[in-house]
Amino acid sequence: MALYADLHRHLGGSVVPRILWRYFKRHNQEMAQRFPKYPAFEEFYTRKRNTLDEYLELHTLVESVQTEQTLPYFIYRLIRGAYIFENLAYLELRYTPYLRTPEHLSQNQRIDEMAKIVQIVGKASQVHEYPIIISQILCMHSRLPYEVNKAIVELAANMGDYVCAIDVAGGDSHYGDRLDEFISLYQYARSLGLKTTGHLYETPQGCYPALLPYLMRIGHGIQIPLKYPELLPEIARSNQCLEVCPTTYLKTGTLEDLSELKVVFDRCFDAGVDIAICTDNAGLHNVRLPFEYENLLTQDVIDFKQLQACQDAAFRHAFAWPHKERPASLLTDLLKDNSPEKMLLSV
């Protein structure tokens, strides 16, 4: 029974460790020799890193094998797990298409190849045996040149059948020197009618208020309630939703303990700011969305009423969810329509 929505999951970090290890065993001799036994690979792949930058280096490991040929393999297994083990009805999958193109090509050739990658991801996401609504968010990247990032925005605008929004990723501490550039790209995106989110206020070094007006959702954003709660009323008025990914902050060293998120949730709820609970990199963490929920509940970060509010917010702020209600409400109405009393009345 699919009931949940995940608004923030990276394609690069979505591959669970055992599937990635099996792929390496079959196709990558160097990695197979380095990790002949699975437990050692799982420990390496999922262990805590000291900084966000160190953590993001793991994405390059997966990006290098997510090619035109292999993407359907990884996406099928991603969707199968999301449907069977996570009860997902809706998933927004984000990634930088340029980083899935062949490195030996020129920049212009790689830009031209990006549309093919988006199409492959889109078609591979249509798995009829696992009926999940999946849409793509294309990520600009802090370490890519302006020309590539602009091409990513234009690609998103031209492939609306597959793409629901744009993002900027690559570590929020790296935006500062190019802030005007990213503002102009977001302005351009909004002028093209694109929906927007962005990795922002994830770390204390990634707080750029000048970018906030251009975002419809805020990727992470936890430093706002933690360090800049005076911004919360305007975020509430702007109907911006925070995409909070609990396990990420432990894995990157941003937070020491999950209990620190209680301030984030409490201040956001008090200010009327919506939060969607997300996984970010479910494979890197080996933690699926229901376990994110459970961890927050069992550690008294949120209560059940707050959890339901976050689940409702996820569907309400979803960029491509086609219904007015979340699946649980639709299912309740369906069950009411097929209740024994109504069936007897119809006889």
Automatic annotation (TrEMBL):
- List where the protein spans the membrane: none
Query: Which GO biological process annotations does it have?
Result: adenosine catabolic process; hypoxanthine salvage; inosine biosynthetic process
**Entry annotated with the keyword DNA-binding:** no
Name one cellular component (GO) term: cytosol
Query: What does the record give as EC number?
Result: 3.5.4.4
Note the InterPro entries from the entry.
A_deaminase_dom, Ado/ade_deaminase, Metal_Hydrolase
Keyword field: Hydrolase, Metal-binding, Zinc
Write down the Pfam families for this protein, in alphabetical order. A_deaminase
Q: Which cofactor does it need?
A: Zn(2+)
Q: Kindly give the SUPFAM superfamilies that the UniProt entry links to this protein.
A: Metallo-dependent hydrolases
Gene3D superfamilies recorded: Metal-dependent hydrolases
Q: Where is the signal peptide?
A: none
Give the family, as the similarity comment puts it. Belongs to the metallo-dependent hydrolases superfamily. Adenosine and AMP deaminases family.
Protein name, entry field: adenosine deaminase
